[in-house]
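Notes, Module 5: Reading structure tokens.

Key idea: the token line is not a picture. It is a compressed description, and you learn to read it the same way you learned to read a sequence, by spotting repeated patterns. We will look at two proteins. The first is printed below with its tokens.
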Amino acid sequence: MSSNDVQTARPINAGLVEAAIRRHVDHRRNTLIPEATVRFERPGQRGFDEYRADFMMVSDAGYGTELEVKVSIADWRKDLSKPKWLGMPSWITRFVYVVPEQLGIPAFVPGHAGIWHVKPARVDHFSSHPDGYEIVLARAPHVLGREKVPQAVIGKWYRNLYYRYWEQRIDAQRRIPRHVREAVSP
């Protein structure tokens, strides 16, 4: 792909990055959970805190990798002020930022965080222009821990996905006019 092709490609937004993640992850070996709620106990404090991970990827062996999508430097910098950096659960064994290639690897990014770059690529091999996006490993993540994700946490993520699916489906059905929704087919 020439540099001219990259310049003519549209800007990469969060939806395109998420689509690249879904295409990149090997679903035969990993479970990909979008918008996973992560609960953790802050060191030295009572009670729990929680945040939403863009994606949690759980391997067949049960180890969890958090994938965080960032599309701008300001968004990326803001992420470092979140409470997760004060006490991430020990079962998150790796942490990866997934960002457009143009963002590079800024100096403020923690050294243990991996970085996947998303860049335009040819998905349809009959096309001469980029028509999709691929993920390229820019920096491998360090192993943070060796604990597996508890089955209770995975079960809760599945339940949340189930309920979110039905909420979205019901909401979509409400948008269809009643006379169309309840029409009797011949």
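Here is the second protein, with the sequence above and the tokens below, as before.
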Amino acid sequence: MSAFVESIRQAKASGDPRQVLAAIPYLAFLGIQLRHEAGTDSLLSVLPPADRLIGNPRLPALHGGVVGAFLESAALVQLIWASENVVRLPKVITVTIDYLRPAGPVETVARADITRQGRRIATLRTVAWQQDPDRPVASANAHFLLPPPPEERDEPDAG
């Protein structure tokens, strides 16, 4: 079993989604934090303010690439957390981002919802906000290719 799969299983067994961050170093690089949304099984992703994430110091505003990566990461983490049997990371097919207003250098929060999940494809909608969830700074629609279930994976030929 890979270290990734083991860390995800430990995170789920403990009910602590923060352990997922250790399995995906880019999330730690961005400084993303995770917490449970009150009264749901959903996760909230939190991007604390950091000077290194500013793209336009004149406003100042977060770099658009950081906002996009944050939205994609929030969707990925929610998909992993909601999956019953994680064997590998889901692969991004497409991500469409709508930048709605400048994201200032303050805490940014995102919630990803699985809008449809089939056997091989999952679709998620992610919304990010600062201070007021009714005034989002960006949103994204993402499609992920899910790893095949263990019974459908191709096994290498023995010969």
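Summary for the second protein:
- Strands lie at 33-36, 43-47, 54-56, 61-62, 91-99, 108-117, 121-129, 136-145.
- The CA atoms of residues 72 and 122 lie 13 Å apart.
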